[in-house]
Specification:
Layout: E1 8-12, H1 16-27, E2 33-38, H2 69-74, E3 77-81, E4 84-88, E5 93-96, E6 101-103, E7 106-109, E8 113-115, E9 128-129, H3 134-141, E10 149-153, H4 157-168, E11 172-177, H5 189-201, E12 205-208, E13 212-218, E14 221-226, E15 231-234, E16 236-239, E17 243-245, H6 248-252, E18 261-262, E19 274-276, E20 281-284, E21 291-292, H7 297-311, E22 323-328, E23 331-337, E24 344-349, E25 355-360, E26 366-374, H8 375-390, H9 397-401
Bound molecules: flavin-adenine dinucleotide.
Amino acid sequence: MPHTNSSSIVIVGAGHCGGRTAQYLREFGFAGAIHLVGDEASPPYERPALSKEVLTAAKPLDALDLLTAERMEALALTRHCASVLSIDTVGKTALLSNGQTLGFGALLFANGGRPRRLGIPGEELPGVLSLRTKDDAARLLGRLRAGQHLAVIGGGFIGLEVAASARKLGCEVTLVEAGPQLMGRVVPAVLADCARAVHASQGVQLHCHVSPVRIEPQDQRLALTLSDGSTVLVDTVLVGIGIVPGVALAEAAGVAVARGILVDAQLRTNIPDVYAAGDVAEFPSPDSGTLMRQETWHNAESQARVAAQNLLGAQVALSAKPWFWSDQYDYQLQLSGEPAPGLVQVVRAQEGGDLILFYLNGSSKIVGICGWGLTARIARDLKIARALVERGASASAEVLADPATRLKSLL
Ligand SMILES: Cc1cc2nc3c(=O)[nH]c(=O)nc-3n(C[C@H](O)[C@H](O)[C@H](O)COP(=O)(O)OP(=O)(O)OC[C@H]3O[C@@H](n4cnc5c(N)ncnc54)[C@H](O)[C@@H]3O)c2cc1C
């Protein structure tokens, strides 16, 4: 591995991508100081279980940790429980909220994002929660008791996962989505409708085309008024309307930002020796060149690897294709590659109503897939479908649509 001349690397954000990058830096032979600065009390951890197994008590919070305190010590990572307040990219220093100033040879932004706020009256009331951190999950868990009523604002992945977990716990759940369908930003309507049917059959009260207007305290509960004029009385409101990427710190330091911190295919920002990765980074797709931000576990993992190599002086380009999963009840949704509206869309209906959509370009190359089904039944086929995307396999629409075609034979 080529070696950077920097003797010190600062990582802003000790979450999934930051923690993993620190680990890789050591694995790739970096012997200098690694400053991992994070404003959460926990060691770096993986977030996906926060809306799933943690809420249903199938996993304790400390089972999510990516690096234990002992492992960080063994890797000689210097962990700072603080916020980075400002960065001087000329003098190459970072100012922390504990008053410390860290010098750096290279710096990585891996500071993710914060839950988007509703901007309506009553949002600050106790009982109105969001879900991003372990602390958030602990707060939510403390309020999900059988018979309690939870309102979920937002029919995206996190909202739907929380709705599923809350139903498993015996809570009454009302979910409101401002758009015309669930998971509207990325999932095609035909799959969103399957998810909707499952949630409805599990007893979730679903309302699309409806948004919250205000929240007021009422008899120890919360009165949530909606845009259709109705009011629903609940015990807890979970706001799951996406995140705002943490670009302000970078922007104030002169780093170019747009919908995220802008980086090139090597995760370099416009400032020498300053990189960004994970949820916060806006990068060119290795396949299409389209600028994108990915808020996924796989993106945090794969970009950490590339970031670590390039922080050490290599010039490795991003190559991983997007991949995402969401678990809701015993069902799973997966997306991989780049499903896009202009592509040929092939629907493959499988046993029990499971669906896999394939997206083909003009030369019948499979450039993306999106699937939904009972996890135990569809997981294997989704794995193969993802492999077809990874390998850039080609197939005709007829062959893919035919449920009798064994997907493995196309690999
Ligand atoms: C509830 C939940 C469920 C999810 N489920 C899935 C799933 O099923 N599948 C999937 O693919 N993905 C899932 N994800 C997404 C995945 O967890 C994220 O994409 C991933 O955590 C991003 O990693 P990151 O390091 O970029 O950001 P984060 O893990 O958010 O880490 C950023 C860290 O930086 C800290 N920070 C921010 N600003 C500063 C500052 N100025 N100074 C110091 N520290 C700072 C933050 O507090 C945070 O600890 C889920 C996410 C959540 C929240």
